[in-house]
Amino acid sequence: MIDIERRSAGLGLEVRADNDKRTLVGYAAVFERLTNIGSYFQEKLSPGAFSDALDGDVRALVDHDPGRVVGRTKSGTLRLSEDGVGLRVEIDVPNTSDGNDLWELVSRGDISGMSFGFRVKKETWDETVSPPMRTIEKVELHEVSAVAWPAYEDTTIGVRSLEAFRAGAEDATAVEQRKAENRAAAERRIAEKRAAMEQKFRGIQSQSDGQGAS
């Protein structure tokens, strides 16, 4: 699980009760909003980043704890959707210790945030700005969580991703440099052959002119 990143939306979490059904509603992610990740880089989510993940088997957790499951897409107790804001989450809270505690804590305002755990499938980096800009275009979604500390962010994996991008850019530069050197060497060889042929031709022509004069 060490390669899973976590981010939060910070838009709040609401309770909605309908007869005996208790549902938490909120956003786990917001599109196009810049987030400063530990002063290492900026980051934003592109609309559609979750489109491939909505049909997956995703859990709803409390504080990212895999032992505290309060919903699941496969069972229909967790519903995920994308809209113009971001990743919208609805959790039908269970009648369990974790579920009852979570309902009470959200109702009181003690827990008011949502977050999500993910792996990046597609991203782009822009180092023409400072700090660098990371745009996440596609994610593999693992879980959404009701969290007491929605500002929590994991920088380690994002920094590794930036370092990998830079290493790849350096490799690409080295490849282009080698290609340029190979092209230059080939052009030199062609030029040398052409010069040798011209010199040989001039030598033959000089001999012919000399024979004609005699």
TrEMBL record:
<dbReference type="Pfam" id="PF04586">
    <property type="entry name" value="Peptidase_S78"/>
</dbReference>
<dbReference type="InterPro" id="IPR006433">
    <property type="entry name" value="Prohead_protease"/>
</dbReference>
<dbReference type="InterPro" id="IPR054613">
    <property type="entry name" value="Peptidase_S78_dom"/>
</dbReference>
<dbReference type="GO" id="GO:0008233">
    <property type="term" value="F:peptidase activity"/>
</dbReference>
<keyword id="KW-1188">Viral release from host cell</keyword>
<dbReference type="GO" id="GO:0006508">
    <property type="term" value="P:proteolysis"/>
</dbReference>
<feature type="domain" description="Prohead serine protease">
    <location>
        <begin position="13"/>
        <end position="161"/>
    </location>
</feature>
<keyword id="KW-0645">Protease</keyword>
<keyword id="KW-0378">Hydrolase</keyword>
<protein>
    <recommendedName>
        <fullName>Prohead serine protease domain-containing protein</fullName>
    </recommendedName>
</protein>
